[in-house]
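Practice problem: predict the structure.
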Amino acid sequence: MDVYEAIARRRDVRSEFSGAVIDEPRLWRVLAAAHAAPSVGNTQPWDFVVIQDRAVLSRFSEHVAGCREDFAQSLPADRAATFGPIVVEGIEQAGTGVVVTYRSDRGGQHVLGRHTIDETGRLSVGLAIQNLWLAATAEGLGVGWVSFYQENFLRDLIGVPESTDVVAWLCLGPVTQLQTVPDLERFGWRTRRPLAEAVHREGFR
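Answer:
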């Protein structure tokens, strides 16, 4: 699979995890791909916390379900109806969680490239996540980014120190299939913008 095919096939997986746990060789290959990402000042400000303990997965899943329900209750009736069938997590089904974190102080006080734009450090972590995602797709694996959680709950659950920011919980595991159409499009939540609307030439106009 070349990189363009991986980009086209990549999906935010929820319901398609097979229930099998990823084998160690593939786990380390996708983590190596993530760790090979470019980073501002070559700081590599990320860490990857691999969670496969079923009790921890279950506790986090219960927390996420509560956060999902809070969001559903906040929606107007029409959006709540659209949101209803959308699955927002596959934590226990994936069998593996990869919590990606960010250390802003990694690299010391003088980080080349962060002097005027501090957020390039956190953006570097995003590049690592994208590398992991594309490598997982090429390996026949699925990834789901869970964002329905309270950071302090997750920090306490897995012991992330205050000096470190939690960026993402990624569900990672073998899948039965990858959907041809992303879930949020299939369920009518939102369609993609055409590329032509996003491209500007010689200025933002």
